[in-house]
Amino acid sequence: MRVLFFSSQTYDQDSFTSAVTSHGLDLHFQPARLTEDTAALAHGHEVVCAFINDDLNADVLKRLADGGTRLIALRSAGYNHVDLAAAKHLGLAVVRVPAYSPHAVAEHAVALILALNRRLHRAYNRTREGNFSLHGLTGFDLHGKTVGVVGTGQIGATFARIMAGFGCKLLAYDPYPNPELLALGATYLELPELLRQAQIISLHCPLTEQTQHLINSQSLGQLQPGAMLINTGRGALIDTPALIEALKDGQLGYLGLDVYEEEAQLFFEDRSDLPLQDDVLARLLTFPNVIVTAHQAFLTREALAAIAETTLDNITRWAAGNPQNLVEG
């Protein structure tokens, strides 16, 4: 069975090639993003493996179906970029990787917190230039601070356990309270109250119609002055332009982003020799209290191995008529 990977990177090829021996699939890798213009590359491939920034709208799905594709195998947990109604109409099955390594994403969120708090990015650049001054590098103890966890699924729960280990007080927001967080002593609150009380807020919820722009100018105004915001979930959880005013007036004291609302045209590529055309991102990068990483939170050896194994298992089980991890439209 021929499988075409869109948006593939070297690490994708390495992890999937290592895992494929027990599955008997014919894998092909394409670095291009899946769009209406590139969908023709999938002609003759029964399975298309897509990533988070691939475009799986109705027109793209129709072109894939017309070319013989019958399965969309997402190598991610999120599926907000898939027109599920169109997929169902076209007879395309969609499978995903519901979990791979919650530790990978949760630990990256903590890394952003530590780097922002202790100004590690600024200290690193200074010492490389021979500047050993400590001016402006004062941080704070995490112990005793109040941390708000927005979204308490596997990743959010893992993040909460780590922060509990630092001695932080936990607040949580999720329509479905997680007993694991309650056992850690977390208090569930409505989002506005969590934002008012928490000194550090970390987003771990999926992107849905209800959570799009969950953080906006109004909710940013509810933060404690100088609060820290971390997003390793999905870029569109935040109305990104609203961040700039919150940073300028000090309402937002620290910002760590691993995802960005308009990342599809930017992330996963080396664009260092080109002018940055995204004015909002360019402005964010001018703030000394902002760190942006290019959607790398998932990027650990363990997570890549789990993603590859689950994705390939999804494909072989679908081919055998025993599908798992289906995404229903």
From TrEMBL:
Note whether Transcription occurs among the keywords.
no
CDD domains on file: LDH_like_2
User: Cross-referenced Pfam families, in alphabetical order?
Assistant: 2-Hacid_dh, 2-Hacid_dh_C
- Domain D-isomer specific 2-hydroxyacid dehydrogenase catalytic: residue ranges: 3-327
> According to its UniProt record, which protein family does this protein belong to?
Belongs to the D-isomer specific 2-hydroxyacid dehydrogenase family.
- The entry's protein name is 2-hydroxyacid dehydrogenase
Task: Tell me the ranges covered by the D-isomer specific 2-hydroxyacid dehydrogenase NAD-binding domain, including all copies.
Answer: 110-297
Alphabetical keyword list: NAD, Oxidoreductase
- UniProt xrefs under PROSITE patterns: D_2_HYDROXYACID_DH_1 (PS00065), D_2_HYDROXYACID_DH_2 (PS00670), D_2_HYDROXYACID_DH_3 (PS00671)
Q: Which organism is it from?
A: Pseudomonas arcuscaelestis
* InterPro entries recorded: D-isomer_2_OHA_DH_cat_dom (IPR006139), D-isomer_DH_CS (IPR029753), D-isomer_DH_CS1 (IPR029752), D-isomer_DH_NAD-bd (IPR006140), D-LDH-like (IPR058205), NAD(P)-bd_dom_sf (IPR036291)
